[in-house]
Amino acid sequence: MKVFFLSILLFCLGGTLIAQKLSPEQIKSLDQIVVDNVDEGAPGLAMGIIKNGKVVYQKYAGVSNLDPLTQIDESTRFNIASLAKQFTAMCILRLVEDEKLKLDDDIREFIPQLYPDIKSPITIAHLLNHSSGIRDMNSLWSLQNITWWKNTFSNQDAIDLLAQQQDLNFEPGSRHVYSNSNFILLTEVVKVVSGQSFKEYSDQMFAEIGMKDTRFEPKHDQIENMARPYFNFDTWKTYDWLSDLHGDGALFTTLEDQLRWEKMLQKRKSKVLGREYLEMSQNLIAGSEIDNYGFGLSFGDYQGLPYKYHEGATGAWHATTLRFESEKLSIFITSNSGRVSTSYWARRCADILIDADKFTNVGITLSPEETGDPLPTEKLLGTYKTSGGYYIQILESDGKWLMRRMGRNDIELEKEDDNLWHEVTDPTFKQWFSLDDENNYQITLYHTSHPPYSLQKIKGDFSEIDFAAADGSFRNAETGGELKIKYLEDDRYEVNFRGRDRKALMLEPDKLILNSYILDLERDANGQVDTVLLYSSRLKAVRYELE
Fold this sequence. Notes:
single chain, alpha+beta, eight-stranded antiparallel β-barrel, eight-stranded antiparallel barrel, 31 strands, globular
């Protein structure tokens, strides 16, 4: 039986609906989202909507703990993962308003052990909008075969790891590449400048706002009223959360507190920041070339309508905030179920609540007009690339079609029509296979969040390649991580990486794909590979030298 009682709309599962603000049809459609996601006695979600500075929809559904069975309610605290970054940014802005800090201060004024050989400034602003070039600490630990959340790492452990790094991903300020390291370092800046621990300083801020149940949690075993995270692999299973990292995430909060926060932002009235700085927190950073990220907040448009948003995911915990300022509308969903895509469902809420004629969809096509004559299915499998060097793989495993992208989990695809597929959990993400003008295979990706773009299937010319010259052991001095490459046959390799033997494929001359990593091979004057540069979504040109 689904968790849904339409007849008691005003007090459903602990939620409160202010029905006069929404039409009955809108309420019914929003309730259906809960029906579609939460079975009776299963992990669930909390969802709230602010319109014109008032709560117009608020609902709890499911359980926060299966043993003992505990219902999600107004006291349940969810880990909202990377949505925490906006609050870390707010702590920084408080110090700026108090004239204790400037956004163009170099972070090495506060953490001098970092990057002594990097001459370019690395500023507070660079950390805030992920343009510092500092590599993501979780990705660096992964190179050492360490799963960060399975360890009781502290923020100091992350800073110690970053202090061992010699290079950056890129010149500070030149690009935007998401890195949790940036916000871990910001917590240290707050500590040094304020003279308090980051937790003490942020706790004071939350108290002033009135967010009484919201706290960063640097001690994983002392979290009260926690919604335990659950995955479902034929049955619901939880797991131990061991990480003590915080500031980039690990903010535990309630729906009530988040709705209070969203009301404050909509009204632009705050007890912790003057109006000028509160307004600044909701905009891009002045003087920066980065136009899609500001103070812990992403910027874009949804079907042509501008919005500000952030996604958060840590294991089975998921959270999404969407803010449509032109509509005076904010949507917040958080969940402790690995089966709930808060990102997808928050946008379905937007579809329900915003008049369709306001979605201009300028320049955005959501699917091909015609899918064409059927192509041989086996020919669609393989590796595809954009001109900018972004790769995806289409795989078949255990009878399922999967898409593998750099730095992301595999997603399952299902066929929709001839040559047209879509993601199982987000049907708006479509993949259309076709032939280009030169009769080469290509894949075009469609989604509501971006215009469609195409990738071409790779056919490399290896006629002059000495495949075996890549054999050897390579080490990264910054992490101690190793790569051992062994040529097998044709364009295939075995690479011992992160303690396991893995298969790798040469996509193009001197470019291997290894799961979600790309390896660029550099050769000496004799043609021997002496350097391997590793790339992923959050790591660029990590150098491994031949031992």
